[in-house]
Design brief:
Distance between the termini: 46 Å
Strand content: 25-35%
Largest sheet: 6 strands, antiparallel
Mean pLDDT: 83
CATH architecture: 2-Layer Sandwich
Strand order of the largest sheet: 1-2-3-4-6-5
Number of domains: 1
Helix content: 25-40%
CATH class: Alpha Beta
CATH superfamily: Histidine kinase-like ATPase, C-terminal domain
Order of helices and strands: EEHHEEHEE
Oligomer: single chain
CATH topology: Heat Shock Protein 90
Length: 151
């Protein structure tokens, strides 16, 4: 693959949603560890999720997590990052897996004038919940957002 080529891989699978009902569609895609790929990741998530009431918030938080992966982990040093979308009936979980860092992700204060993202403080402010797992060889940072289900 060339540095300006398409994302590395795409996969989708049928999984159970949070309540265990089958049929929710998950999607994941690997991206080269370059800043121009953040917009590609946002578009991937928007396409994978479709029209949901919290789409703008999801896309914003994806941008933050991808930017953090590039700025603070080995993903930004000629690595890769993976975005995974796990929709439920009235919620979505998005995970961004990076190439690892010896630093733990922690929320800071969102800076309204920051050019490089507004840190995990924004994720903490908007997401219903968020967290991370992994280590210096690879870490996933995730968030969940829900909405009132229509009958």
């Amino acid at each position: 693959m060339t540095p300006d080529g398409p994302p590395l891989a795409t996969a989708a699978a049928v999984i159970g949603d949070r309540e265990g009902r089958l049929g929710a569609r998950s999607a994941r895609q690997m991206f080269p560890g370059r800043r121009d790929q953040v917009s590609q990741a946002r578009q991937f998530v928007a396409d994978a999720l479709g029209p949901v009431p919290v789409l703008d918030e999801v896309v914003l938080l994806v941008s933050e997590l991808c930017t953090n992966a590039l700025l603070h982990t080995a993903s930004g040093d000629s690595g890769t990052f993976e975005v995974r979308v796990l929709p439920g009936r009235s919620s979505v979980r998005v995970e961004v897996r990076d190439d690892g860092s010896d630093q733990m992700p922690v929320p800071g204060s969102p800076d309204a004038v920051a050019e490089d993202g507004r840190c995990l403080g924004l994720v903490d402010l908007i997401a219903d919940q968020w967290g991370h797992f992994g280590d210096m060889r690879g870490r996933s940072v995730f968030f969940e957002l829900g909405w009132k289900a229509s009958d």
